[in-house]
Amino acid sequence: MFFSFSELRAAFKELGRDGQLETRKLGAALRALGFMPSEMHLLELTQHVSLNLGGRVTCDDFIDILIPKVLAETRGCFGPRELHLAFNQLDTNGDGLVSLPELRQALRSLLDEPLPAADVEEVLRDGDLNGDGRLDFTEFAKMMSR
To answer: Which of 57, 74, 91 is the last residue of a domain?
Structure first.
């Protein structure tokens, strides 16, 4: 399951009021996005929200809660073919490497909004194992499997 930030915000707005979502509506919000949280997971989320967020969730809190769940559910879903297709879409000039501008453009398209330059640079640094300032396919594949 892949969601853009605008899709997550739209799901949040459907159930939230005044820019906030009540704790008791977390399960419905997760299910609206296709997740099937267990009662235990909902209980843990509810306790986290009650203790750390005052019982209400803002849209940013909602996205922060969902990102690890989305990553956990999609980990291992990419085979070699899918990785090559994704890499080739990022490598817009076809040189076999993903540069900072290519990564920035891809993330902007994926997220429906520009990511701060420092965040894009951090993503590249984290994946760039040989330190050349670009991602080759092997580095990209390792980064996607984390």
So the answer is: 74
